[in-house]
Design goal:
The complex is a heterodimer of chains A (238) and B (121). By secondary structure, chain A is mostly helical. Chain A has 13 helices and no strands. With 121 residues, chain B is an all-alpha fold. The chains are: A mainly alpha (238), B mainly alpha (121). At the A-B interface, helix 2, helix 3, helix 4, helix 5 and helix 6 of A face helix 1, helix 2, helix 3, helix 4 and helix 5 of B.
């Protein structure tokens, strides 16, 4: 028993343990998702997060200790965003042909995301600071943090709302699009990239390559559009 | 593979630098994505070099959101008494945004005749 405690206290100090745990939890989530035929609710991010949160709680590990290991995975978000140029390049002809529909979907999705979130939050009595935090929730995390801060909201809470929005979008998109009888993969992908940033794009890449390419376009363009749109939209509810 | 990673990291670095220099309203990696896209259009050699490595990274894009997602769990208590209002706002606005985005795309695709290609590329 003392040996186990010694080994544990050694491993708990190195990044190795929680890096390995992150990969294993994701593999468990991904395997479960594959077994269930990529059922929307079996979202690999959601499953892995729940497994790891329970593990951290059971072992009394702080998020700081966890992140010492997980930061190596987290770091790859930047290079992966750059890498999204590749599906865009593969589908460049389809993207050029669909320039006008892309812009229409972008503006419609982005405006509705910001305005409807603010209208609902306002009607349910959220404070101005919380509305400023909520406004950029559909865009990618680094942009949302900056917008929330500029508008007088909380960057930490903005990051939470962004991640939760991404998971909601990734779970809802397939049943919603099927119910709406939308069969155009370009439209489905663009919409989820605009509404649910990178997590939605990850889902789109798993469902169909062309949806993934258009999701990457939607995510990238909405990062810029939300930055321009959010201050104006917040002014309407100020 | 190292060459491709170097190209990707250099584009991200250039993106981060330009965003800070010019005060642009986009994150560095998104500008890096635009830069590498331009490089790939200009040079088929760069495109062939980067493609397999980028596709390998993107195959498990979901994994990269897990550390941030675990961080969210610890902050859920921050939502406090506003959790219900925020939850309703997030779910409803995400459904509405998805519907608006897809309908906007489909409507203009029909108007401009930019229909979906039948083949799967």
């Amino acid at each position: 028993m003392t040996e186990f405690v010694e080994i544990w206290s050694y491993l708990a100090e190195t990044p190795l343990l929680w890096l390995a745990a992150t990969l294993l939890a994701y593999l468990a989530g991904d395997t479960l998702a594959a077994r269930l035929g990529r059922a929307p609710l079996a979202n690999p991010v959601l499953v892995a997060v729940v497994i790891l949160a329970v593990l951290l709680w059971l072992t009394g590990t702080s998020y700081e200790t966890y992140f010492d290991g997980a930061q190596f995975v987290h770091f790859l978000l930047g290079p992966a965003t750059v890498a999204l140029a590749v599906p865009l390049w593969v589908h460049r002809r389809a993207a050029r042909r669909a320039l006008l529909p892309v812009l229409a979907g972008l503006v419609a999705g982005s405006v509705v995301a910001v305005l409807s979130a603010l209208a609902i939050g306002h009607a349910m009595g959220l404070s101005p600071a919380l509305l400023a935090t909520l406004a950029p929730k559909s865009t990618t995390a680094p942009v949302a943090l900056g917008i929330a801060q500029t508008l007088g909201g909380s960057p930490t809470l903005a990051a939470v709302l962004v991640i939760v929005t991404g998971i909601i979008g990734a779970i809802i998109v397939t049943p919603l699009m099927n119910a709406m009888r939308i069969r155009d993969w370009r439209a489905r992908g663009l919409a989820v990239g605009v509404a649910a940033h990178g997590i939605g794009t990850a889902r789109a890449l798993q469902v169909h390559p062309r949806a993934g390419a258009f999701a990457a376009i939607g995510m990238a363009l909405n990062a810029v559009l939300t930055a321009l749109l959010a201050p104006w939209a917040l002014g309407l509810f100020g | 593979m190292i060459h491709a990673l170097a190209v990707i990291l250099i584009c991200q670095l250039a993106g981060e630098t330009l965003v800070r220099l010019l005060g642009l309203p986009a994150p560095g990696p998104v500008l890096g994505m635009a830069l590498i896209f331009a490089l790939m259009l200009a040079s088929p050699r760069v495109a062939a070099l980067v493609r397999p490595v980028a596709e390998a990274i993107l195959r498990h894009l979901s994994l990269l959101f897990v550390p941030a997602g675990v961080g969210v769990v610890g902050h859920l208590s921050l939502l406090g008494s506003d959790a219900l209002a925020l939850g309703v706002a997030l779910v409803v606005s995400t459904v509405l945004a998805l519907a608006a985005g897809v309908l906007g795309f489909v409507a203009v695709a029909r108007l401009t005749g930019a229909g979906d290609e039948p083949r799967n590329d």
